[in-house]
Amino acid sequence: NLTNRGEKREEIRTKVDEKREENDTKRKSQMEELAKRATTDTQKQAVTAFQAAMEKALASKKAATDAVIASHRTEVDNIVTSRKGEIEKAITALKTSIEAAKTKAKSDCAGGTTAEQVRSTLRASIEKAQGDFKTTVTSIEKVKDVSIASKENKKIELKKIEDTFKASMEKAKMDLKAALKGSSTTNPAIQ
To answer: How large is the C-alpha radius of gyration of the chain?
Structure first.
């Protein structure tokens, strides 16, 4: 399961990296086109400022997104590891209880207790151990339940990051438009 999760994560990371590269190529092409349209020094400075603002916003978005995803993955890994450890403890407790019941049955047999009494006590002890095991395992929080809550938190954080990015881009666009409007008398093609 851990191997599958690691493979799936690597596959997702590869797709994300490919999409980021594709977007970088498109953005570079658009920036080159925008730079070609700028003819005056003021327009060139405005385009350069816009590019810098965009790169800063994108870098910030990427870093924040990567941090949220890494945090989510770490949280899920910790949940899985914790649950696995708790289940292993429950299995060990079950085995220990069954071995103790067997040992008691052997000593009762050696002590002269009737076979029917030993069998009845052994069966009751094993059933109690199995019941305790079942109760313990069902009380351990399911990975899926905790993972769903973590996933929702991740979505909320990613939405905040996206909103911040959009606000930064909108401000950069407005600044660019304002700078270009001031110099648009020389080159109407910029608008």
So the answer is: 32
Decide if 62 contacts 20 (C-beta within 8 A): yes
Distances from the Cα of 71 to the Cα of 142, 150, 157, angstroms: 19, 10, 11
Complete DSSP assignment for 61-129: HHHHHHHHHHHHHHHHHHHHHHHHHHHHHHHHHHHHHHHHHHHHHHHHHHTT--HHHHHHHHHHHHHHH
Q: Which two tokens stand for residue 69?
A: 């995803």
Cβ atoms 150, 97 nearer than 8 A: no
Cα-to-chain-centroid distance, residue 93: 33
pLDDT above 80 (res 34):
yes
At residue 47, does pLDDT exceed 60?
Answer: yes
